[in-house]
Amino acid sequence: MPASPRRRQLLDAALHVLADEGLKGLTHRAVDRRAGLPEGSCSAYLRTRRALQAALAEDVADRLLGDVDRLADELATADEPDGVGAAIALFQRWLDRRELLVARLELTMAASRDPELAGLLADQRRRLVELVERIMTATGKEHSAARAEALVASYDGVLLAALLKPAAERGAFLARSLDLLGAGLAGGSGA
Question: What percent of the chain shows pLDDT beyond 90?
Fold first, then answer.
């Protein structure tokens, strides 16, 4: 179910606060300021800090998983699916919206110390691995849950490394890295 316009406004503001100020800066007051809303607006929708973090984690994961799901659908219907090319284009779009990736990284680090958040992110990770396995099937690659999980972990590392590169170098870095991963982990044609 889509978020109400006000909740969407708050989650968008929270995303930017988290990306710009880190988890310590993610407060109800900071979200209200960023959203341009009166103090107390965020806490009316998300009572506790934990609720704010959980809602933001779900929102970030849903946005990213939605992109991957659309990619899987596109590749499943393509005459000659190009998984590497499609992944490069998707990752470049994500890098252009760096706040999503930075927020995901911040929340992932927080989950290493928070079992409840870890459980939420583990479920989302499982869904992502399933989508990647579906993409591998659509592109004719040798696949298994273990290969898909290794690709997801590798892609996470590539995205993190790409975030640290100057914008002008990201495209070439993504292409080179995903070609290497595609050849090594994704396996050959599944025939």
Answer: 57
